[in-house]
């Protein structure tokens, strides 16, 4: 008896290398709708176009298999005539001077019309669902920095709303994920909540600086670059809120891996005040970091 190969699912959990999940039951068609919704518009339309051409090609071969005369006024043996006849049938746009002849050809065209109507309904629903799905465009800084903030060592990163709207009742959640040994010697993946100085915002319209104080109660207490190399961790960020225009919940997430944590530097200031008193946010420096300012009274380097 031939052994069934276990299904393999390639996914990711946080930052770092992908994770292969082995042994899940195979459902090649069960998650097709969800998969198509997650594809980009370019990939989706390319897949739909290829499927449309492939199906019409199969029907064209079927019409040719019925023999000469199945399609009136079509050149015998012409794949091009059969293909465009199948295209007209699938799209229900009319034949012009070409019509099916005989019971087999009419039954085949009936089957293709039913398939075309079903495909059009599914495609319309898929495109509408993808187009109407609310999404958030949140920009996260490429790195997170660790440095003293208000006298307390802290983990900092920032976000920006990349749309010209407001996200109301925004809520930010940050967790640290790290592999640790239990008392029994088992390696487990533990998740720690990181408390923020401000985890909620009534209006998220421009930028948001997230600050996690690394106090003795923090799971990151005592963390430095050397310790990070020995016990790497991932930091998962999730922000959600209500789009003011759509009235629906939108969310975004981001992950910081060990290589994305910078010690002893700070995020560059992106807020400038003009001579007339107006404020300007320069997003060109959004991901930049710079050395920490030297404390007043310290000797020059």
3D architecture notes:
The protein is α+β, with helices and mostly antiparallel strands. The protein folds into 2 domains: about 30-130, Orthogonal Bundle (Helix Hairpins), CATH 1.10.287; about 140-290, G protein-activated inward rectifier potassium channel 1 (Immunoglobulin-like), CATH 2.60.40.1400. Helix content is about 25%, strand content about 35%. The protein contains 5 helices and 16 strands. The chain has helices spanning about 30-40, 40-65, 80-90, 105-130, 225-230; strands at about 5-10, 20-25, 140, 145-150, 150-160, 165-180, 185-195, 200-205, 205-215, 235-245, 250-255, 260-265, 265, 270-275, 280, 290. A hairpin with a 2-residue loop joins strand 4 (about 145-150) and strand 5. It is elongated, with a radius of gyration of 29 Å. The N and C termini lie far apart (about 75 Å).
List the helices and strands and how they pair.
Elements: E1 7-11, E2 19-24, H1 32-38, H2 41-65, H3 79-91, H4 103-132, E3 138-140, E4 144-149, E5 152-161, E6 167-181, E7 187-193, E8 200-204, E9 207-213, H5 225-230, E10 233-243, E11 249-256, E12 261-263, E13 265-267, E14 271-273, E15 279-281, E16 289-291
Parallel strand pairs: 4-12
Antiparallel strand pairs: 1-2, 3-5, 4-5, 5-9, 6-7, 6-8, 6-10, 10-11, 13-16, 14-15
Helix pairs in contact: 1-4, 2-3, 2-4, 3-4
